[in-house]
Write a structure and sequence with these properties.
Blueprint (H helix, E strand, L loop, with lengths): L1 H27 L33 E8 L7 H8 L12 E4 L6 H9 L3 E4 L8 H5 L4 H19 L8 E2 L8 H10 L4 E2 L3 E2 L20 E3 L17 E6 L2 E2 L1 E2 L5 E2 L11 H4 L1 H14 L7 E5 L8 H14 L5 E4 L1 H9 L30 E6 L8 E6 L23
Bound molecules: zinc ion.
Length: about 425
């Protein structure tokens, strides 16, 4: 009798579990594996290590993307100009990508980077450091505010045109699964560059000896083949949303690093030797030469502070690459534009995204209109005092921040 009751309970539990699984599956509707015939550029591209639309490798441009994260300030601005002061083989100035967060950002300097042709992308308002309690399991509303409010502030205080802000990098590379991509898509973001990969690099050797090679940027129309190393993998379909995978570098110990800052060496050579920095970058760049898959150098300015050899090493590497006629240092936005309309190297000069921008366009943020707005506690940040420099207008009454981009609402202790 007792066994009978137990069996019945077990049956009911199993039934309940089945119903739950069926319901969840139905609600989530996982994206199917990619079907190349149903996924063609400009708006769809399967996650793959093959070069786009079958252009032979020898005819491909080899793209290098240089990106910097966090606040743009008077402390890092000149460094950026120094790194970016070089030209691509077509004679145009190189373009870099800046993933900008709000706190301490000088919006007049962001405007100047944009005026010089660099890409301004989004890296959240708050950049809160509590990954576990803040970013992980964040609601769609939470993601939306972090994305949209930062777009609004870059537009209001830095006069960056909305249509130029297309990219997103999530703080700490904590990819937020379906919820994050849902919010990005609704916010008008065109690509995400937050998702590191180790297995799809030009250097990682699988246990059976195969090397997959690097993934090219792809869209989330179909299920991604990319493994998730940080955060949560999206499973649903987000048509037309591009992912620019962050291909891990291999550091001087042979260990992966998603951002250059995280690369280590056994000795302190990355602090004392410019050549060690150059060699690290060269080795990783050369690993991708045979397929000309895009090479990303993702780093923070803070890595270069206190160690001048790092700047020297980086510049040596950029000089070294300039000997390759197929190498173009481009913004992530340019790379995505090329993915949508891939052309061989010899046709790059006719591609809309690769025209030389006006060398010295007039500024829409003249210095006589700049305002440096001071704010003191109570503030929504840990600093007791902060300045926000902006292009024009009267200083907002309170410090502009998440859910308060116009600074109309006071803060309480
Ligand atoms: Zn950051």
């Amino acid at each position: 009798m007792e066994t009978g009751t137990q069996s019945l309970s077990l049956l009911l539990v199993l039934l309940a579990m089945t119903v739950t699984v069926v319901l969840t599956t139905k609600l989530q509707e996982d994206a199917p594996p990619c079907q190349p015939a149903k996924c063609t550029v400009p708006d769809c591209h399967c996650s793959s290590t093959d070069s786009p639309t079958g252009i032979p490798v020898k005819d491909l441009p080899h793209f290098v993307v240089l990106s910097f994260d966090d606040a743009v300030t008077i402390t890092n601005f000149d460094f950026y100009l120094g790194i970016g002061d070089r030209k691509n083989p077509n004679g145009c100035k190189v373009q870099m990508s800046f993933f900008v967060s709000h706190e301490n950002t000088d919006y007049t300097l962001v405007n100047e980077l944009h005026r010089r042709g660099h890409e301004i992308a989004i890296h959240s308002v708050t950049h809160k450091s509590d990954v576990q309690n803040y970013w992980r399991n964040m609601s769609k509303e939470g993601w939306t505010a972090e994305v949209v409010d930062q777009i609004d502030m870059l537009n209001m205080y830095g006069k960056i045109p909305r249509e130029d802000m297309q990219g997103w990098r999530t703080p700490f590379l904590e990819v937020g699964g379906n919820t994050m991509y849902d919010a990005l898509q609704d916010a008008g973001i065109k690509y995400d560059c937050s998702w590191p990969t180790l297995h799809y690099t030009p250097w990682f050797v699988e246990s059976d000896g195969t090397i997959n090679g690097a993934l090219w940027p792809y869209t989330l129309d179909f299920f991604s083949i990319q493994e998730q190393t940080v955060g949560t993998k999206p499973t649903q379909s987000f048509p037309g949303m591009w992912v620019a995978p962050m291909t891990d570098l291999q550091d001087n110990r042979g260990i992966e690093c998603s951002m250059l800052d995280a690369c280590q060496s056994d000795e302190d050579e990355l602090e004392t030797s410019a050549d060690a920095v150059t060699q690290l970058l060269k080795r990783n760049f050369k690993a991708g030469l045979s397929k000309r898959s895009p090479f990303g150098i993702y780093v923070h300015h803070s890595w270069f502070v206190d160690y001048p050899v790092r700047t020297e090493g980086m510049k040596q590497f950029l000089d070294y690459m300039s000997a390759y006629p197929e190498v173009y240092i481009v913004s992530m936005r340019q790379l995505i534009a090329w993915m949508k309309d891939p052309v061989p190297l010899d046709q790059l000069k006719d591609h809309e995204a690769f025209q030389c921008p006006d060398k010295n366009p007039p500024t829409n943020c003249p210095s006589e209109n700049h305002k440096n707005c001071p704010y003191t506690a109570p503030l929504p940040i840990s600093q007791a005092e902060v300045y926000m420099k902006m292009c024009v207008g009267t200083c907002p009454t309170y410090y502009p921040y998440l859910n308060n981009v116009e600074g109309k609402d006071p803060y309480t202790k």
